[in-house]
Structures are given as C-alpha cells and as structure tokens.
UniProtKB/TrEMBL annotation:
Name of protein: Type VI secretion-associated protein, VC_A0118 family
Pfam families named in the record: VasI
Domain of life, per lineage: Bacteria
Keyword Signal: yes
Keywords: Signal
Length: 166
C-alpha cells in the first residue's frame, strides 16, 4: 500500500477546481511511470479542523482516491489516531441518520481509510450531499468531530470514478 504514504503530500498540494459551487475540492492527477495507470485524488479540508486531545485544533482532510485501479477513501487528521489497526468511525451526510463504518489506520497513524468496494459504496453514498460530519477517536480515546463541505462532489469525483472504472 505504497500510495498511502503519499497521502500526506497529497494534502499539501493540488489545484482548486474552477467554480465556487464545487465546494473547496482540490485535485491531483498523475500517472504511474512504471505501469502507466492513473493516480487520481480529490480532497477537501475540514471546516474547523480536528480537535486533537494532545495538541488542540489541527487541519483535517477527507479524500477520495484511485491509485492504479484501487479505490480508497481517507481521513487525515494530523492527530495520532486510535492505536487499533481497525476501528469504528461514525459519520453523517447532510441530515441523514448517523451511520458507522469500520476503518483501517493509516501507516503514519494520523488518519484512517477504507478501500475497494467499501470505499466505492461510501463514495456513492456521498453523491448529491453537501455536508459530511465524521466522529473519530484519537490515541487517547477522545472523540473529535470534523465537518466537511462536500458540495460539488458529483463533478469533482468524476476523474476518480473514471480511473477506477466505477
């Protein structure tokens, strides 16, 4: 999962999509020099960041990604996350009911992710929505809530969908 290590760099770069109506989505588009397969990422920053119990408010990012045909959804908090490799987050789109999803911890321990079919299902659930609220726990077990403006997801996610053929 070499591409997970790239996620930190992804959140530090990117080009904003053209219209204000696209929320605050940023995108990165590359091709593997070895396989020639696409690497597509869209990401958005949390409105108020993540409130880490140890260090206070930190920038947080939410991303949809396709890396050489593998779909991935990632949350990067800049906070050390729960010590477990696999744990649960709660989330809600707009005013929908709160749901839970099991996620994996990123190798740098600063975020969590889901991949493959679970990532595609989550992405499809986001279509047509304007807000995503996520509740996750850090390494001390303290909960942090992050909200993301995902307006314009339908258009912003197209390169990711195309690259992963869904």
């Amino acid at each position: 999962m070499r591409a997970l290590a790239i996620i930190i760099a992804i959140f530090l770069a990117g080009n904003a999509l053209a219209s204000d109506q696209q929320g605050h989505w940023k995108a990165i588009s590359k091709r593997s020099k070895i396989s020639g397969k696409p690497f597509e990422v869209i990401y958005v920053e949390a409105n108020d960041g993540a409130n880490c119990s140890a260090i206070g408010s930190q920038p947080a990012y939410f991303a949809f990604k396709c890396d050489e045909g593998t779909p991935l959804v990632a949350l990067h908090t800049n906070c050390v996350m729960n010590d477990e490799d696999y744990n649960e987050i709660q989330y809600r789109f707009d005013e929908d009911e709160v749901r839970a999803k099991y996620v994996h911890r990123l190798p740098d321990m600063m975020g969590q992710y889901i991949r493959m079919n679970s990532a595609i299902e989550f992405a499809k659930e986001a279509l047509g929505k304007k807000e995503l609220v996520i509740r996750a726990s850090d390494h001390r077990g303290a909960f942090m809530e992050m909200d993301f403006n995902i307006t314009g997801i339908e258009e912003a996610i197209e390169p990711v969908r195309k690259a992963c053929n869904w």
